[in-house]
Amino acid sequence: MKKLTCAELGGLCDTEIKGNTPEEIMMGVGEHLKASDDPAHKELFERVSKITMEDQEGIDWDKGVREKFAAAPDMTQEEMELEREVPLM
Known about the structure:
Helix 1 (about 20-35) crosses helix 2 (about 40-50) and helix 1 crosses helix 3 (about 55-70). Helices cover about 55% and strands about 10% of the residues.
């Protein structure tokens, strides 16, 4: 499992998004943006939800997330155990 922050994925904050694949990370940041009460997050979600993989912006973002995911270190066993102990909000 790896983790990237919302900001590392083009977002606005330091919330950690975790996943086992780049696709899980992409879905996680989308869910994070959509669930946020912050108007800036909502605005960003509305903008990015209109981007498709046919758009150069979508292609570039997908490529960037995949590169960042590949470069991110795996979470340590200790970090993953802590994740199991703390309920998600």
